[in-house]
Amino acid sequence: MSAGTSIEAPDLSAHAGIRHAFFTRLGGVSEGLYAALNGGLGSGDAPERVAENRAQMCAHLGLPADRLVSLYQIHSAEVVTVSAPVAAAERPRADAMVTRVPGLALGIATADCGPILFADAESRVVGAAHAGWKGALTGVIGATVAAMEALGARRHRIVAVLGPTIAQESYEVGPDFIARFRAEAPGMDRFLGAGTRPDHAQFDLPGFILARLAEAEIGGATALNLCTYADAARFYSYRRATHRGEADYGRLISAIALTA
């Protein structure tokens, strides 16, 4: 794949036994609204184009085309343990996955929500989570760490990186959101910035995710600090597509794998 099609995080690329990529929308074969590296199995893009894009991602990671595992994401705290490739039609309904099996790429699809890649390089356990506001609020991060521990990871050795996510200045929320957030995340009002409209706020999703990662007491957590909404050239964005009145949007893939 050409330069610029993916982004790597130093905290993960420092480990020889782990391959990862936060793929951008650059490269690939999709057209129109989906141009060009759309990995979304749930999008309205031509299935053969999505399949080719995902095959290119696997090749980038040094894996066969069928080794990119995806979920049917439902904005939950559900986590699954993966031990073999999963057919697209059989993907589990969950929002995070973990494995200790080499040669499987755990791929999270996002278009504003937070993709988090986890690794305990010493125990050789990796994980990937889709953390929108609902998942982050209801516990997907802690559940992912616990599932990694069940495979032999040690919490203090786990490193996590948050990929491209909608930034606070682009994420307005209304009164229903604010009420639920305050009820279920007491003491977290610092992530609700002043809104531009009455009874609204600007929600800091990346900051909230990093706070949840800190609560999990893992070894370290960082963010790429890249906004999906603001950077239309590199990233898909559900909210941007909605504001533009577009019929659909592509999905970014963030993936991590253990090498053999």
Report the end-to-end length measured between terminal Cα atoms.
Answer: 22 Å
Number of domains: 1
CATH homologous superfamily designation = CNF1/YfiH-like putative cysteine hydrolases
> What's the gyration radius in Å?
17 Å
Major β-sheet annotation: 6 strands, mixed
Task: Determine the CATH topology.
Answer: CNF1/YfiH-like putative cysteine hydrolases
Overall pLDDT? 97
Can you tell me the overall shape? globular
The number of strands is 14
CATH architecture: 4-Layer Sandwich
Give helix and strand order, one letter per element, not per position: EHEHEEEEEEHHEEHEEHEHE
* Beta content: 15-25%
Search tags:
single chain, 260 residues, CNF1/YfiH-like putative cysteine hydrolases, five-stranded mixed sheet
What does this 3D model show about the protein?
- Helix content is 24%, strand content 23%.
- The chain has 260 residues and is an alpha+beta fold.
- The strands form 3 sheets. It has a 6-stranded mixed beta sheet with strand order 4-5-8-7-9-13.
- A hairpin with a 6-residue loop joins β11 and β12.
- The chain is globular.
- The two termini are 22 Å apart.
